[in-house]
Each structure stands twice: as C-alpha cells, then as structure tokens.
C-alpha cells in the first residue's frame, strides 16, 4: 500500500506540473505545428530525435494525419497506462504485428486478444523461477567460455561478440543445442530479419511478401536458415525427449491445450522463432550499450568492478562458489547498471497500437483506426521525472522504480503484452556483465567517435563498437 501511495503521489505531482504548462485548457491533445509531409520526412530521417523533440509538446500529440487513420504520439504516463492496460481489449498491434508475422508467424509477439492470452498461459511456465535458475547456469557457462577466448589488447567487435554469446545462450536454453560452428551464419540470418522487418514497419508502402523483391528474397533465405535449426531441434526432440526435458522446447512439447491436445509443430516453430529473435538480439544490443556507457562513466565502471570483486572474494573465503542465480541476486549495483542502460537505451524504443473501435481515455475521445506511437526512448528522457535524464547514473535506481509514476519507466512494455521474458533478460544481462567485468574492462578502439543509436526493430549502437579488452 505504501508503494502504491508513493506512486500515486508522484503521478499527481507529475500531472500538476503538466497542468501548469500553457496547453489548451479544454484538451490534453495538441496538434504538432509542421506539415504532415515535413513530419514524415523528419521521422524517416531521425525517428528518435523526432520523438524526443515531441516530448515537451504535450501529453498526446496529434500528427495531423488523415481523418481515416489519425496518428498520435503519446507522452504522458497516465495515457500510456490507459492504452497498455485499461484499453488493451480495444487495441491491436496492427502494422508492426503484420510485418513481424512474416518472420515469426503467429507466436506470442504477434497474436492478438484471446489467442495471445491462450499462448501466454502455456508459455508462462517456461519462465518460472526454477527455470530461470537453470538458465542462469547456462548464461554463466557460456559467458565464461567467451571470456576464455578473449585476448587482452586484441580488439573485438562488441556487437558481434554479444550477439554470438546471447545466441549461444538462447539456443541452449531453447533446444539444448551447441552452435559453435553455426553461430556466424545464424547471427547473419538474425541480422537480415531484423533489418528487413525494421525497414518495412515504418515504410509508407508494404510490398506483398510473395513479391520477389531483393529484400523479400533475402528475408525468406534468412527465415529458412533459422527454420532449419528449429525444425531440426523439434525432430531431434521427438527422437530423444529426455535430452530436451529441461529446455523450453521440451516443456512446450509436453504441454497440452485446454482440450488436451498437444501444441502443433508449426505453433512450436512460431514460439521458438519468436524467442530466438526477441530473446537474444535485444539483450545483445543492451549489453553493447552497457559497455559503451560504462566506459564513459568511470565511477559507474569502478563501482561495478568493486561489487563483482567483493562478491568473488566472499565466495573464495567461503570455499564454495554460489549457484549462478544466487550470485545474480546479490549483484545490486550490477542490476542497476542494467536498469539504467534500459532507461537510456531501451531495446523496444517504440510501441505501436491501433484502436479497433472508438474509445475514450481520460476525457479524450479517439476515433476507430486511430494509431498511437509510444516511445520509451523519449519518455525515459523526461527531465521532469528523472532529473539529469541524459546522464548515465545507475544509482538513481537506489529507491527502486516505484519512486516514479507508473509507465514513466517501462523498458519491457506493460499490460498483458509486457515482455514475458523480462526476468530472464535482466538476469542474463546482469550475469554477462558481472562475469566479463570480473576479468576485463573494455575501452573503445580509437577513431570511432561518439556512439549513435540506430532504431531498427530494437535499438542498436550504429555500426557496432570495436572495443579492446583490458585485463584486470
């Protein structure tokens, strides 16, 4: 009750500050000033800059698009809560799901309404605590293997390194499959699917997938590469189910629906494809940003090293290392580094929703087929909520996220469509950071300049980052 009261007090303070601004007294929806074409071109050129610049304009910013499909940028936490929680039955993901369905099919990421709820019910056990504990061991083992292969002073492409590491982790967690010889090919296939999907989601024209455009041809080839892995694992699991008993695949193959029927192979394929893509690319991107941010904030980097060193000394003194998950639970500052990275560089930089019917939210009416664009990237940079919002300060999480209004910080979305694997992702990122930071610090190779975000399906550091591991 205390946390809820604090959250409500913060939200009321936020609303009061907002009301003091010189908005139209009759509405919280304001029109953007530039023309539709000017806004479209600016968004295409620099979507993140466009969304950040729209943050101070109003709680809900109308882009003055067509009457048939009005489009809004939503900046206010209370409107975001209405959209993602209270009005979710009246909304669909729309265009983003249609595009992603080309790759992942009808999995948890793309299904709607009752079908989504049905799938979520049987997927939830794959992320129960006892499963997370098993995955934690895999994360540590795979990260130690990567650390053993690093050579001090020899530059590494950090994006490629993190992608291959998280791909190895998710592959073992999903299929109990080692990918040493195939990681490069599979990582390339993931990259193609991400780039092609991102380019299509925000394109004014979506070409039919059956059309043999160069992009569609590349995407279909990449999907074939990923499907070969998934269907190969399904076939192997049919032959030797005991080998897959502790994996996500094994759990799904043992699952029955409400009518007692097993999940069809195609549906398992769709869930595995969803987890394979969403379950490693987003975490890899966040980790690259974390290494980049730590390099630029020596005090944060020092505190991270102090924490992992102190925990390792404690383990040595006891003569017995902690299980991986128990180790993660004691890494307080490391968790805050992950949380602050997700604040400044949330992989899900934009969330799209569309209305299926006319709705009313907080006294405002929105027509059927209205589109809403919510940007955690922009909202997490609200100086009225976070103070020095552009600075990387993990200690701002000392008091937890309840200190801020609900949906002022939401790197994993919210409502029933919030990321089902959020606890897995936090654990994975924390253990990878701590395991590598125990042995190395990373500095950027010279001549690269400042890091620039690249908003694809998830938020990347543009052109990756060449970094040099320095032994500690």
UniProtKB/TrEMBL annotation:
Entries under Pfam families matching the protein = p450 (PF00067)
Instruction: Please verify whether the record's keywords include Chaperone.
Output: no
Q: What InterPro entries does the database record attribute to this sequence?
A: Cyt_P450, Cyt_P450_CS, Cyt_P450_E_grp-I, Cyt_P450_sf, Cytochrome_P450_Monoox
- Residues annotated for heme binding in this entry: 419
**Which cofactors does this gene product need?**
heme
GO terms (molecular function) for this protein are: heme binding; iron ion binding; monooxygenase activity; oxidoreductase activity, acting on paired donors, with incorporation or reduction of molecular oxygen
> Would you identify the family this protein belongs to, as annotated?
Belongs to the cytochrome P450 family.
Full protein name: Cytochrome P450
Q: Which organism is the protein's source?
A: Cohnella endophytica
Question: Taxonomic lineage per UniProt?
Answer: Bacteria, Bacillati, Bacillota, Bacilli, Bacillales
């Amino acid at each position: 009750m205390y946390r809820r009261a604090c959250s409500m007090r913060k939200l009321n303070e936020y609303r009061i500050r907002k009301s003091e601004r010189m908005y139209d007294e009759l509405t919280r929806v304001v029109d953007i000033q530039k023309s539709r074409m000017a806004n479209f071109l600016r968004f295409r050129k620099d979507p993140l800059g466009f969304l950040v610049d729209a943050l101070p304009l109003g709680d809900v910013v109308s882009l003055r698009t067509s009457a048939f499909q009005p489009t809004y940028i939503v900046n206010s936490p209370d409107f975001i809560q209405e959209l993602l929680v209270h009005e979710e039955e009246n909304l669909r993901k729309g265009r983003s799901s249609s595009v992603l369905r080309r790759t992942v099919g009808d999995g948890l990421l793309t299904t709607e309404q009752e079908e989504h709820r049905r799938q979520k019910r049987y997927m939830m056990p794959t992320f129960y605590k006892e499963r997370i504990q098993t995955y934690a061991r895999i994360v540590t083992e795979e990260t130690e293997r990567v650390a053993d292969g690093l050579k001090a002073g020899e530059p590494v492409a950090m994006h490629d390194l993190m992608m291959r590491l998280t791909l190895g982790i998710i592959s073992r967690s999903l299929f109990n499959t080692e990918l040493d010889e195939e990681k490069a090919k599979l990582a390339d296939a993931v990259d193609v699917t991400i780039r092609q999907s991102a380019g299509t989601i925000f394109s004014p024209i979506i070409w039919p997938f059956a059309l043999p455009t160069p992009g569609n041809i590349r995407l279909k080839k990449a999907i074939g590469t990923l499907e070969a892995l998934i269907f190969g694992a399904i076939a192997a699991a049919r032959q030797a189910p005991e080998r897959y008993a502790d994996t996500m695949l094994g759990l799904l193959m043992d699952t029955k629906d409400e009518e007692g029927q097993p999940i069809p192979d195609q549906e398992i394929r769709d869930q595995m494809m969803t987890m394979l893509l969403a379950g490693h690319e987003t975490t890899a991107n966040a980790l690259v940003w974390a290494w980049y941010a730590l390099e630029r904030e020596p005090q944060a980097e020092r505190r991270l090293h102090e924490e992992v060193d102190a925990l390792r000394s404690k383990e040595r003194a006891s003569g017995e290392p902690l299980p991986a998950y128990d180790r993660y639970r004691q890494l307080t500052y490391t968790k805050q580094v992950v949380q602050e990275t997700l604040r400044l560089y949330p992989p899900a930089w934009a969330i799209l929703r569309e209305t299926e019917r006319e709705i009313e939210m907080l006294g405002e009416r929105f027509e059927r087929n209205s589109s809403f664009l919510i940007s955690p990237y922009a909202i997490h940079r609200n100086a009225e909520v976070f103070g020095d919002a552009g600075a990387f300060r993990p200690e701002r999480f000392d008091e937890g996220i309840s200190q801020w209004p609900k949906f002022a910080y939401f790197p994993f979305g919210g409502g029933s469509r919030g990321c089902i694997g959020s606890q897995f992702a936090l654990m994975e990122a924390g253990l990878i950071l701590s395991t590598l930071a125990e042995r190395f610090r990373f500095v950027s190779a010279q001549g690269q300049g400042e890091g620039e975000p690249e908003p694809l399906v998830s938020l990347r550091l543009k052109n990756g980052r060449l970094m040099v591991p320095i032994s500690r």
